[in-house]
Amino acid sequence: MIEIENLSKNYGSIQALKNLNLSIDDGDIFGFIGPNGAGKSTTFKILATLLVPSQGHAIIDGYSVASQAGEVRKRIGYMPDVFGAYEDMTVNEYLSFFAALYDVPASQRKATLDGVLDLTDLQSKKSADCQSLSRGMQQRLGLARVLLHDPKVLLLDEPASGLDPRARIEIRELLKELKLMGKTILISSHILSELAEISTKIGVIERGQLLFSGTMPELLSKVQHKRVLHVKVKEKAPEALALLRGLDYIENVDMTGTDLELTFKSQRKDSSDVIQCLTDKKFRLLEVREPELNLESCFMLLTKGQVG
């Protein structure tokens, strides 16, 4: 559905994107993550036909974003991280205005508006002034706007930015519903735990370069090269440290107080080997755990906190 090949974008001497290659399949929710300034919004704007790439090309549903922008715009709904809700317009007037811009036939507009208002749970707010809506309601209005022409592809740049927990949950559930409707969704967010829950694939970008693209299990496999174990002993931590450092299957041990962090040389060894060794030597253990990797920890391991 979305194919990006060797995409680059320069702003003078600053290279915002560097040979980006990315493939997003039909029906995917693709979570696009990276530090501020990594190139996410530049990618969105190129795909939305608002920026011309310096090099490379992008294809959406078989159409080039550079040479066939008109066809691409019929197939996408782009929601930037900040969008304006016009003053002195009601929700219904706002959506009617954009329905006309999207060339929704006049005979179909009422049904179309009712459909997106129902989907985004804004039916009760259709007579309200846009500026009177809460941040969460405005984000839902933004989604309603980009759904008016029933696009195949949604480009959502930080749709949950600044929302309270309830509003974030509502947006998340709406995105799940849109996926069930067959939409292909490219979404960026800094709320990584929620992105991990809804995304079928993840892309990690830093300083304009793609560091990873694939499923969550593939990401875990990429960053978890070696098994790590945390052990907390009741006392005699220095002695436990010396014992563990002498084991041939342990690569490294660090100590903070009575907490020990071990790195195994081999995936074949696990916590049971360490527990057996320590208990045989009469060490009393308060805690033994393997840290759980999630999207946040993978992101921290994969990136360096650099921006373009």
At the fold tier of CATH, the topology name of the largest domain is: Rossmann fold
For the biggest β-sheet, the strand order reads 6-7-8-3-9-10
Poorly predicted tracts of residues: none
> Which percent band covers the strand fraction?
25-35%
CATH class term of the largest domain: Alpha Beta
Q: Return the string of H and E elements.
A: EEEHEEHEHHHEHEHEEHEHEEHEH
Distance between the termini: 28 Å
Helix/strand-derived category reads alpha/beta
- Mean model confidence by pLDDT: 91
Overall CATH architecture of the largest domain: 3-Layer(aba) Sandwich
Verbal overview:
With 308 residues, this protein is an alpha/beta fold. It folds into two domains: 2-221, P-loop containing nucleotide triphosphate hydrolases (Rossmann fold, 3-Layer(aba) Sandwich); 225-292, Alpha-Beta Plaits, CATH 3.30.70. The chain has eleven helices and 14 strands. The strands form three sheets. Strands 6-7-8-3-9-10 form a six-stranded mixed sheet, with helices on both faces. Strands 2-1-4-5 form a four-stranded antiparallel sheet, with helices on one face. Helix 3 (91-101) packs across helix 4 (109-119). The longest helix is centred in the middle third of the chain and has 16 residues, at 165-180.
